[in-house]
Specification:
- This protein is an alpha+beta fold.
- Strands 1, 2, 3 and 4 form a 4-stranded antiparallel β-sheet that branches.
- The protein has helices spanning about 10-25, 55-65; strands at about 5-10, 30, 35-40, 45-50.
- The radius of gyration is 13 Å and the shape is globular.
- It has one domain (about 5-65): 2-Layer Sandwich (Alpha-Beta Plaits), CATH 3.30.70.
Length: about 80
């Protein structure tokens, strides 16, 4: 399996939430630990979200939308 960088997130918590969203929808995803880069005095960090190459198109659809909320989540 070949892993590719899908996108970058402005920080690790947001990156983890995006990866979690992808996993909820059946896409293997992780935040690449070796890509965490300090930007401003170690405060802001960007991270790469990686997915298998064959799932990249589906992953892009999920992050761009339309959104599918898991059962029991979302606005009421």
């Amino acid at each position: 399996m070949r892993w590719v960088t899908l996108t970058t997130a402005p920080n690790e918590p947001l990156g983890e939430s995006w990866a979690h969203l992808l996993r909820q929808h059946g896409v293997c995803a992780y935040v690449a630990p070796d890509t965490i880069t300090a930007l401003i005095a170690g405060q802001a960090r960007i991270v790469q979200i990686r997915v298998p190459e064959e799932q990249a198109a589906r992953a892009k659809e999920l992050l761009i939308g339309p959104w599918e909320w898991p059962e029991g989540a979302g606005a009421s």
